[in-house]
Amino acid sequence: MDKININGDVFVPLFTEEQIQKRVKELAAQISEDYKNRQPVFIGVLNGSFLFMSDLIRYVTIDCEIDFFKLSSYGDDKISSGKVRMLKELNCNVNGRDIIIVEDIVDSGLSIKYIEDLFAESGPNSIKVVALLMKPESLKFKVKIDYIGFNVPNRFVIGYGLDMAQKYRNLREIYVLKESGE
Ligand code: IMP
Ligand code: MG
């Protein structure tokens, strides 16, 4: 893995493909154990969670369903706009179901808070959240993330589904923005 230079911003490797796959496997094993004899619906938050979701559910050993929905909170920038908009709604009925929200990364917690409040209105049996990454230092909203892949520093990350201005989602590894002077 090499560093990546994007218009003067330097990104350095944070997690290798092997580290990511190992951790996703562990999360899937834990979820399969916790939900045995149940059929949860994994609900992926587009676009960032699509790779994590596809790996996660292939490692899961219980019967499950999937759906996706889409929010917009970030513009094409590295800074949150602080607002959330719904861009694609769910197709499935979550009433009475055990739902597991699948997020790429929890930053301020605004998106997860919005999603949980929204789904709670539809009367699911339970709601849990799995996030591949979490930035504990930048959390501003009171949210409980039930399964966390890795905690990461409060710096911009790209790869494995995570974008910068819609690009770099196809990297197999995760890279973090290098701080000036580092
Ligand atoms: P939150 O609503 O502030 O928790 O932000 C969560 C959303 O912002 C995630 O679903 C990501 O799509 C995006 N996001 C937050 N931090 C990063 C990052 O470091 N890289 C890429 N996307 C990010
Ligand atoms: Mg996202």
What small-molecule ligands were found? Answer: inosinic acid, magnesium ion
Query: What is the β-strand count?
Result: 10
Strand order of the largest sheet: 5-4-3-6-7-8
Main sheet: strands, sense, barrel: 6 strands, mixed
What is the terminal separation in angstroms?
A: 18 Å
How would you describe the oligomerization state of the chains in this entry? single chain
Global geometry: globular
Structural class by secondary-structure content:
alpha/beta
The count of helical stretches stands at 3
Helix and strand pattern: EEHEHEEEHEEEE
pLDDT under 50 segments (min length 5)?
A: none
Report the sheet-strand fraction: 35-45%
* Mean of residue pLDDT values: 92
Task: Kindly state the percentage of residues in helix.
Answer: 10-25%
Q: Using only CA atoms, what is the Rg? A: 16 Å
